[in-house]
Amino acid sequence: MVGWRAEDLVGGHIVLDFLNTTGGRGKARDGDRLTEYADLLDWGAAATLLRADEATALATALESRPEAAVAELRRATEWREALYSVLVAVQARAALPEPARETVEAVIRQGQSDARLGLGPGGAGLAWQAVPAEPLALPLTRLGLAALEFLTGPDLTRLRTCERCTWMFVDRGRGRARRWCSMSLCGNRAKAARHYARIRQKC
User: Cα 56–57–61 angle (5° rounding)?
Assistant: First the structure.
């Protein structure tokens, strides 16, 4: 079981936090932390994508339908990497890559198809609620709806990639000068690397 901490959720948007469930200390997107469907549920609960009762219900469904859960995890991680490729292209102002765009779009369209209007959080206003025919698809369906909001909203222009790793984040600072996903993670590593480089130069 993966233990999720606040420093694992620094993207500023739930879709970016999902993209950041993989990636190591460098620019290779390795070290995937979603190796089992249960990991997806744990992350969903930590990131508030899922309520506690929903995560419990899906864990029960996982026990009775493990093959379906494996398939849903594969869909989720493939979509994650496709969305990452699309956002890299957006940052580079390049053409969106195929078939990554199609993969991203398909999940968003399915999410729209599997959504209905209902009361928003706290009963204030209306919001699209995910009601997929396949219960185990709930996490990805919600992520698809969240991606639609992110990709067509103002935060897309504030998208940044950490200079040290592959994690992405929304920079809402005044000067938009944030360089690291987290100062306590990559920021400190970069400082340490510069320090050691100076020491080597003196030797």
Answer: 115
pLDDT, one tens digit per residue, over 51-77 is 999 999 999 999 999 999 999 999 999
d(CA 183, CA 171) in angstroms, rounded, equals 13
- Residue in this structure with the two tokens 């599997």, named with its chain if needed: 114
Domains of the chain: 6-202 (1.10.3300.10)
**Model pTM?**
0.90
Q: How far apart are CA 50 and CA 139, in angstroms?
A: 7
